[in-house]
Structure formats: structure tokens, C-alpha cells
Amino acid sequence: MFIPWERSWPITFLACLFLACSLLCGKASAAPSITLSKKSGPPTSEILVSGRGFKANVVVNIYFDTKNERLVVTDGNGAFDPVRIHAPRSARPGEHRVTAADKSERARKPFLVQTNWRQSRFSPDHAGLNPYENVLSPKTASSLDLQWTYVTGLYVQGSPAFANGVVYIGSDDGNLYALSSRTGAKLWSFPLGGYIWSAPAVSDGVVYVGSISGPLYALDAETGTQLWSYAAGDIFGPSPEVVDGIVYVGMGGGSDDTAIYALNARTGSLLWKYAVGTLDFSSATFANGMLFNGLYDGSIRALDASTGAELWRYQTGGEVDSSPAVSDGVVYVGSDDNNVYALNANTGAFLWSYTTGSHVVSSPAVAEHIVYVGSYDNKLYALNANTGALLWSYTTGNQISTSSPAVANGVVYFGSDDDNLYALNADTGAKLWSYTTRSSVQTSSPAVVNGMVYVGSNDGSVYAFGLSRSAAQSSELLPKQAAAIEGPHTR
Length: 491
Prior knowledge:
Elements: H1 5-29, E1 33-36, E2 40-41, E3 46-52, E4 59-64, E5 67-73, E6 80-86, E7 94-101, E8 106-113, E9 129-130, E10 144-151, E11 161-163, E12 166-170, E13 175-180, E14 186-191, E15 201-203, E16 206-210, E17 216-220, E18 226-230, E19 241-243, E20 246-251, E21 259-264, E22 270-275, E23 285-287, E24 290-294, E25 299-304, E26 310-315, E27 325-327, E28 330-334, E29 339-344, E30 350-355, E31 365-367, E32 370-374, E33 379-384, E34 390-395, E35 406-408, E36 411-415, E37 420-425, E38 431-436, E39 447-449, E40 452-456, E41 461-467, H2 469-473
Parallel strand pairs: 2-8, 9-35
Antiparallel strand pairs: 1-3, 3-6, 4-5, 4-7, 7-8, 10-41, 11-12, 12-13, 13-14, 15-16, 16-17, 17-18, 19-20, 20-21, 21-22, 23-24, 24-25, 25-26, 27-28, 28-29, 29-30, 31-32, 32-33, 33-34, 35-36, 36-37, 37-38, 39-40, 40-41
């Protein structure tokens, strides 16, 4: 039926008015929201929080769980620009909440507190220190209990890496395994075709790994799909190091053609190589734009990380299989001449040495001005980092060969050829806990992260340890859960 314009305009006007009101009311009633600059990170992580949809010109409090971190004032549009907060040092692994709340409204986003052990010795300086651990401590480590094992086809001499809930570790059966950190279930495996004695490195969703029979591989961390490979000979022992988009690794088929390579982490293209003229069992250590390597000819060499140019070298009296650790401008490294050395990182100048009873192949760990290192004389040593003076030693039932100590929250963890994994008080050397596997923990070095300890054994298994059920259920050990901010903030 035709309706003249004079009669239809009130209907049209009312419809438009209704639509406008609906839009305005929808805008006015839109729930407030916040955006976080990151979804996860370790304790102390910096988080930028921005918000919108609040009332104009009101005070908004920013909480991490129940702790009030910041106070902001919204602009005329009910928004606020990014403000900086930090995940508390005490925030336990698991999901927490970031909340923005005014007197009548609130918005929340989850934040996962999680620390990653992405590569050999935790950090590029190879200090073997996880500074974020807040579950395991000298008070709780005695309650460690086996959580799961995964059996591979041969010795597990590789060391684990951990990233985003996945444990990556190689086996002498020629496979790299990706395992669920919670259950130990296999997520995927990739055949490298040879013994894997090194630790993989995980960076930006890519796993880098090699074996003694083939090239360096770059694999998709989620699926295990090969992205690229670089062939330059065997990788006898060095673990790849990934820093600022560059992979550093020692490769070669023998003493004459062995070199340290720098590769583009995204494409695998060669950036530079440094021929060493000897075998390389040590992993490259990165600190302050320099690389440090120990070599089979007994030398420790420092290279410019951007060009591969040699900066200095220091000669020890034996083979250097130990990977250097760098802390506070000092390089710490062991040698088969039975000594632990401390050298000036900038010049290579000798600072001190400490003589153990046998070869030092284990890589040092450094924490709180103490150097921890194992020796073939069956002992783990704690030395003053400034002077080399002995603070304490702990004797195991067999040699401590390549398994290197890891330090986290006042506890030092290491394996021994006596088949045991140990946890000692880092200050006193007192034994807190040990676990006996079915063979030696000879080469695999433990990774300690998020209240868990991961390690391999020559019995062919990967082990995961965490707090026993009774300890985890105690109120003292449970992470503080994110409590709701209720009361006047409830919408």
C-alpha cells in the first residue's frame, strides 16, 4: 500500500531515532576492556596495560591478582594509554589475572606466569642460573618426587630445553623428542639420524638441533616440521646458541675443517665462519657482543660475535670440553689439565685457577658470586667467584663428567656417573635430595624451571621431577591463586 511522504516521514523519523538510540545505548553500555602487551612471561615480567570502555575521567586501579600495581585516570573517551606493571617476583607458575577496576566497573585478562629454559645453560652467557624460580628452594627441594618418565630407544645424553609447556630433548636413538611437560606424552619426534649429545635451542617458535651424523636443523617447535638445514659436518657436542636472530654453533667432520658458524636463524644462510683447526666439543657462549669457546687444542678463544674475528685466546694445559660461563665480566671454564680458570672476558687475562683432582669437563654455573663445577674426581666444587677459594665440595659415588650444574633459588642440581641426580643447598653443599636412575646421568644436564626438574639418563629415559602431591597441596607451597576483586567493582 502506498503511503504518501507526508504521512510516512514520522515513521521514518522514529525508525532512525530508534536506530540512533540503539547505537548510542550500545556504545554507552559496551563493557570495559583491557589489552596486555604480552600473554605470558616469568616472574618480574614487564606488562603494558591499556584500557577502553570505562567512564570518562575516572580513577582506575590496575591489579595483578589482588595486588594494586598502578592507578590511572581515563580520558574523555573512557580510555587510558598503556601503563607499566610487573608480575611480582613471588608470582607462582600458572594463570593469574590482571584487572582494571573503577568504583563500578572492571575488566580482566589472564596472564600466564611461565619461565622458559630455551637453550643450553638457560641463558646466552651459559651461567646455568634460572633467576626466576620461586617454587623449589632449600626448604622444598627435599620433597621432589618423580612425576613422569619417557623411554626413548637408546641413551639420553642430550640436555633438555623447555619452552611454552614443551620439553625438547635428543636421544642416542637419533631422534629429537617434543614431550608434554605436564604428562610426558610425546607430541612429536624428528629423526636426525645420529647421536644427539647437545641441547636444542628454542627461539621464536623454532627448534634448532644437530647430531654427530648430520647438519643443523631448524624445526617448527609446534609440529616438528623441518624449516631448513645447514650441512657443514658433524656436531659432536656443541649446543646451538640463538641470540638476536643469529644461530652460533660449532660444526665439522674433523680437526682440519671444524669451524664456528654464524647462521641467519630465519633462513639458515651463512653469515660468517671461523675455522678453529681442531675439534670443538664446547658450546659457544655469548656475552656483551662476544663469543667464547673452549677447544680440543686446550685453548679458550674469544670472537667478535658480529664478524667472527678473533679477539683473544688463552692456552690451558689440556683439552677444553667445558663450555665457558660468563658473569660480571669474567669467563669461567674447566680444562682436562684438572683446573678451573677465571679469565678477564675483555682481554683474556688470567685472574685465578683452582686445581681439582681430575679432568674438569663439566661446564661451570655461576650464581651469587659462587662458581659451581663438577670434576672427574667425583666432586662438585663451590668456589669463590672473585678469588677461586674453595667454599665447599660434595663427593658423589662416581665421576661428574659432562653433566653440568644448574642453579635455581638457592639449590644446585647436577648428575653423576653414580646414576644419581642431586640437589644440594647452594650455600652450604648440604644434600637436600637425590634420585637414582637405572644408569649414569653422565652427559645430560638438568633444566630447572617452573617448579620442575628435567633430565636425561643413560638408561634411555627422560625424567621429570616436581613436588610430591602432599607438598604441593600444602598452603605454603601452592601458588597464590588470582582472587576476584569483588565488592563495589562487581558489574
